[in-house]
Task: structure prediction
Amino acid sequence: MSEPAIVSLTPVGFIRSSLKHRADAPRQGSEGAPDAVLQMVPNVEEGTDWIMVGQEIIVVTWLHQARRDVLKVHPRNDENLPLTGVFATRSPDRPNPLGLHRVRVLDIAGKQLKVGPIEAIDGTPVVDIKPVLQSSEDSY
Amino acid sequence: MSEPAIVSLTPVGFIRSSLKHRADAPRQGSEGAPDAVLQMVPNVEEGTDWIMVGQEIIVVTWLHQARRDVLKVHPRNDENLPLTGVFATRSPDRPNPLGLHRVRVLDIAGKQLKVGPIEAIDGTPVVDIKPVLQSSEDSY
Result:
């Protein structure tokens, strides 16, 4: 194929969280995750202009501690559930371990956005941020 | 900071669409986009096991024709709207041009998933696929 074989992402921010280890992280933000700080990288800071406190956003992370060589998992690490293709699950282990986190913006102070709840651990790179769309059919 | 400065993604598939040019693509799938084929790369094909026809999935694309040096845009390319940080918009132009497309799986044939509607153009690399979560509060 003529398409590019590899694309490179540069983090636009990092998560600062009280969650320090993957083993401590809940599987989804709604399952008891804490709030955290999204610290923007200085040179892309102006990309957050017009993000508002109270708004919902989708934080796209790079799950840097995930395994990339896994194509099948037991969902929720439950061996009673059948081995399932990673693309049919939300497992962090997958060829390109991107995380999608729908969170609310709780505070904004300069380069720092307080957001939550979010299950990403401390130090997780953030690669993109998007608004949640208003119309219900686009509401991912 | 000690975190990684760059991360690399390898496409897990490519979009095959009747949309050939960015100028022809609607801004969102719900705005008249066609159905398309998601052709998986052979060595990751088993990652799609248990994806079912009729299910909704989130296709994460690499918007390979987007500009990466843009931090502010007029939303929907409407110059009457104020210049807005790209992270507060769904503009494809952004430092890491990832696209999120919530689509329905219409057919599965081997390595090919027919999905839609989707506004990504022909040849767009797919970097991840995730199920839409069942609980409404996680329904991105």
